[in-house]
Specification:
The complex is a heterodimer.
Chain A lengths: L11 H9 L3 H23 L2 H18 L9 H19 L19 H8 L9 H14 L2 H12 L4 H8 L3 H18 L7
Helix pairs in contact in A: 1-2, 2-3, 2-4, 2-7, 3-4, 4-8, 7-9, 8-9
Chain B lengths: L2 H8 L10 H19 L2 H12 L9 H22 L6 H4 L2 H4 L38
Classes of the chains: A mainly alpha, B mainly alpha.
Amino acid sequence: MAETAPEPEINDEDLVAQTQAGDPRAFDQLVRKYSSRLYGLVYNMTSNHEDTNDLLQDIFAKAYRSIKGFKGKSSFYTWLHTIATNMTINFLKKRSRSYQMSLDDIDNGVQHDPEFIELTSSPDATREVNLKELQQRLNEAMMKLSNEHRAVVTMFDIQGMPHAEIGKILGISEGTVRSRLFYAHRQLQNYLQEFLAA
Amino acid sequence: MNTDVHKLLRLKRYEMPSPDYFERFIDEFHRRQRAELISRPTLSILFERVVNAFPDFHVPRLAYAAVGVAAVMLSAVILSQQQDTGVPAASFALNSPAMTQLPAVLGDMRLPVSARPDLPPHYVLETRPVSYASPYSF
């Protein structure tokens, strides 16, 4: 049986242009490309899988409806992340305080992550790290931050975005990004004291 | 930057749904798109398309106030023009033929009955509702 060749990578600008010209399959490619990344953004801000799934659907639906108005002043990536962040923050403002966390499983790859090995084998660690407990505590700590601080922490610490990109997405200066990060890290350090080296 | 906190947070990258989730996600996306097209009112879709067609157009914040003030001023001008013609809007009904053909006696009805010299004297009951119920005090 003949092996099908992988689809050539088409850049975002072309996919956006094709979508704007009325080709929904081009938008499907954009969804495939960004769904995993946006999932991480929304999930780490909500700590709930079902909410993330619904929100992500709404985010892509909104992007699809609005794509004709996208003029390319920013990259598609930035534009999509701005929609996602705004919709997630609006959702969190309306969500009741009595929500339940619904966490995804941790990929087994974490066991081989050098940072995880370093954290768990450090002689300074005050206690043995239980993976499930660590996940629970990390999510609890994140949810104690304000929505705006959590957005910055998610994009910088978890997703590895540069300060300038975060500033563009949130419509704030790089200085504000840095100060929010500083404040959020200080708060998180207090919440996660027992998992950190003395 | 607090490196230990940063390292801990980096571990959250490993919290992910099962691998087939994203394949199912796109099917779900198509299903919802179709359902939305069926359930949404046509006017709502039309309005959104118009809004999306002009993304840079925003109604200024004070525009609504300005329209309100303009509406009030316009109403005031129309009312003042009606008063200038000497024919108040409410007087149209009284000057209509149906009202002018009423008997002239109606013009005296505003006077108290006791003050009319052309009528024989009579008693006027007080305008208190009459009740046949027995009084409470004996």
